[in-house]
Amino acid sequence: PDDSYLNYMVPAAVFALDYSNTTFNTQAATAIPTDYFAPDRGLAIMRSGTDSLALSSQFHCRQDMGGHTHGDKNDFTLSGLGRIWVRKTYGGSPFQPIYFHSGILIDDKGIGVGDPDGDKVRQPGKLLDYQSGTGLTCVTGDATYAYTWEWHWSPQVSNDHPWLGANGWEKVTETWNDFQYIPQTEPQFHIPFYDFPDWHQDGKLERMVKREYNPMQRVIRTTGMVKGNNPFMLIVDDIQKDNASHNYKWVAQVANDLEIESTNVNLDDCRYRNDIILKEPAATGNRRLLVRVLNNEGYTGETTPGYLEELDYVGFFNGTTYNPNPNFFRHRLVVESNSIAPDFRVLLFPFEAGDVLPETSWNTTRDSLVVRFSDEEHVIAFVPQAGGDWHKIALANTRPIDQVQLQVKAYLQGPYNGEMMNDDLNTNTLLPNAEPFTGLGYTHYGEGGGETMAASATTQTDNDAIVDWVVIELRDENAPSTILATRSALLQRDGDIVDVDGTSIVTFECLKADSYHVAVRHRNHLGVMTALPVWVD
Question: pTM of the predicted model, to two decimals?
């Protein structure tokens, strides 16, 4: 018909005009905001910038049920450095379950799919929070209802749904406003779904019924994009089925060409991180994706922190095997937890091979995270909501209290020239890139050991030029022979001891402000220690 949707859309596409003759990037920066939010649909788009290399992510809570809706409640995507990392999966009726999306499976079970009218997943999610800013944009979705219930519908003029009252099926008495981020006043938002008008059959009612499918206490996900010079994503999952232990699978539908390059497990409380690095083929570049699992309750380190598995394209209801043309192979990244509540916390950071990865450290209660790059630092607070059922992400202005910084000045007799120290090791490129003490048999404590000097440190000149590596020890105030923490650091010509970037104050993680004996040691000089404890904060 002349007034059809397509007849309006086709001319708009055919006769579209650019409003400006400037470059696309100029237009995009002017006309397109970096963040987009659709509260009715439950959709949030976050971008770190407007160029093709910017970090970009979609989050889909799906509090609508229009179209052939999938089981993609709280699904996310990720692009960055000019390529796709976490993709939106193949569509089509046989592939509606959350198995084909980036979500969480509990004992290999997710969100129920209704078989009539195109295998839809019409149970809505619900947006809980959205905030957009220059430093952080984040959104929170609640999929508890969608996991807990399965729906079925049978449009009727006046009769009840034929399944009502049998096998646990009951009326869906919820209304649109039970799931709206912003409740609406129009009449249709107050009609129970059981009595809601059918979407295309005049005079019929939807007759939605529900029954328990995968009962959950909470399925709440917050995704946040931290912007700046080194943008990254945080995926925060507050999920629990009941008070028993279950197998939880955190799933990301990654691009077909990615493979796992390496993994690294560190279960120390403060530095807890399980790294999975995905790489693209050499033919397309040297880009990588850091998947850093910052928290995974129940993980012991006895198994790999994550693995790739191929998707089986099998119809949910009929068991038919499909060929998902044109891509014959698709896989997903899986992170497993056997626990009561896994409390997944995952950081995603695209980078180029050879780039220095961020340092991350928790406070003791794991509600404050420091993410440190060579040129910037972010302190992220995980703020409990609804009695701790879920956590909002916020940027904090101060470091957590269990992190101390120490300014120490010392001189080595060997290179001392009467005014300051010579930097012959540095100028003759004899200064080791990695701290040498571990290799010499020295035992580090706490988070010390394995420090690597930033390339920029060797370019320091004059008084700030680097002389050599030293070790700072923090010792018990009442038992100075007891070493609590160590840190390898760099000594400048004027005696300042600085962090591995060559300029910053030395930082000790997982320590609270307190009194300590401070000792400084060098590989071929006698060590020194404060006679009395000093306050360190």
Answer: 0.80
